[in-house]
Amino acid sequence: MSYEQLESWLLMNPEFASVAIFIVAFFESFIILGIFWPSIILLLLAVAVNEADIQLLTICLAAGMGSFLGDFLSFYLGSFFGPKLKQKKFLQKRQLQIQKGEEFFDRYGWGGIVIGRLTPAIRPFVPFIAGLAKMPSKTFIISSIGACLIWSLVLAILIIGIDNILIMFN
After folding, report:
1. In the predicted model, what is the mean pLDDT of residues 33-53?
2. Predicted TM-score (pTM) above 0.90
3. What DSSP assignment string belongs to 91-102?
């Protein structure tokens, strides 16, 4: 299904908009899918469903919860599979990058999670690396919730801004 087909279907079936936003936000944040899933899809879909009179709060809550679930699962995949993956040839060649990632989380802790959530290119990798670096679960969960709240607020501001630009040209 293409983006255009998804958007058309959601505009005809707005009752599924919050579920779709949740799923797209999850895909964008989860380590396995986020590598291939660009962030712009969520923004465009959020703007489209906002134009279909879906409440901004609903859109941002669904996006925030989907993102948190993606981050949470990525963190635990990093915690569980990280030590085993470090032994694989692919990651053994990248020990320096892994060490730098671990040092980054040792130095910045929760701030690294917030920075990672707000940086689209590295968003799906940050929770996985935090798990790999053995960041404490409590620290990760609290910082991820805060980062997802900030990110949801930024999403709302972007939606409002794009909506105002579209109104100017209509």
Report:
1. 87
2. no
3. HHTTHHHHHHHH
